[in-house]
Amino acid sequence: MEIQDSAGKNSNLKQQIVFVVAVVSVIANIILAWMLTQKQTEYVTEVQRVEELSGDKQQLEFELKGMLAQYDSLQTNNDSIMEVLSSERSRVEDLLKRLKNNDWTISKLKKETETLRRIMKGFVQTIDSLNTANLELRAENQQIRGELGEERTKAEMLNQEKQKLADKVKIGEKLQAVYIEAYAQIVKSNTVHRKTEKARRAEKIKCCFTLNTNELTTNGQKNTYIRIIAPSGKVLTDKEDRSNMFEFDGVRGLYSAKKEINYEGKSLDVCLYWDVTTELEVGKYIVYAYCENYEVGATEFVLK
Predict the structure, then answer these.
(1) CATH no. for residue 242?
(2) How confident is the model at residue 298 (pLDDT cuts 50, 70, 90)?
(3) Are 183 and 298 members of one domain?
(4) Is the entire prediction scored with pTM above 0.70?
(5) Which of 66, 144, 176, 274 is the most buried (most CB within 10 A)?
């Protein structure tokens, strides 16, 4: 009986041990399974994080390259702004280099990229404003140039009209001989002068003309002259030196006779004489009359 009881106890103990081992094994398997599940979850999470970081890295690289391209496209004539643009572009290049070398964390790179993006937007707005202002200034400058050109043209036209009027006034100021006559004379013993057409008998040459009424010319003392041109083309004069010369029509030449008159704006009769000193030529004589330095009339006569 005792042997049977002992065998029964051993059998129960073995069963208990087997049960405990089984329970422990199950628990261990459960724990292992849980740990494996956790590891798998962590692995999947890490893979997702790595993929997300890789996507962020690619996105940052794309944005940084885009910023470089945009910096390259920014153009301005402002040297100070171009210097700052070059500095900021170098910062973008440095970030891109660090991103490729994994020197910084993605979060830091994101913050720095966002900062640079804001700076670049400010530059874009500034440069756009400057370019717009430049375009407006150019348009305004072109408009002003056009207006100045028009005003210059108007001024030139006014000056031309003014000059034309001045020329007309100058022409209008000139006196004219409304009547002019010249002929040779002989002097009688009683000082009576008679007209002659004989060259050998001529003792004087007389030229008379009437100056017109002119309210535009200045009144006062004026010099009148006559130039008698012989058939040979020679000017008849008392002295062939500078004392017998005057300015007329832009040249200087000899005169035959000179007389000072007092012109008061009204019609005035003037007569000048030249005394014959040697026998005159036969032929046609031309007589020019002048007031001051311009011609007022001309006539001719013939001696036989």
Answers:
(1) 2.60.40
(2) very high
(3) yes
(4) no
(5) 274
